């Protein structure tokens, strides 16, 4: 595993919560927001809008730390009934939920105001 050369941070933009940088309950919008509303949230890598607005569904099966990619949590053939990791927080959660390190487990059939998901398309260059 490669060491992170940039400083560690609580949020993609730094260490202090800021309702001007992500859509979470302290922002006061009270609903999802359009992509591009928070461009000042960019990380040192240029990634934007990684916190707040809607939860990001991951493929990882939820297990306690420490993380070990060989323990089965990254099994692509795992049942869809498994509890998966969600990250990023949402408009409904406090600044605590939009921290980089915050995650929790959710079932694929779990629904409610607290769970929204976005779909990301990542271009592949050959």
From TrEMBL:
N-terminal signal peptide: none
Coiled-coil regions listed in the entry: none
One family name in Pfam for this protein: FGE-sulfatase
Region described as Disordered: 1-27
Domain Sulfatase-modifying factor enzyme-like: start-end pairs: 7-110
Entry-linked InterPro entries: CTDL_fold, Sulfatase_Mod_Factor_Kinase, SUMF_dom, SUMF_sf
Example of a GO MF term: formylglycine-generating oxidase activity
SUPFAM superfamilies: C-type lectin-like (SSF56436)
Protein's name according to its UniProt entry: Sulfatase-modifying factor enzyme-like domain-containing protein
Organism for this UniProt entry: Candidatus Brocadia carolinensis
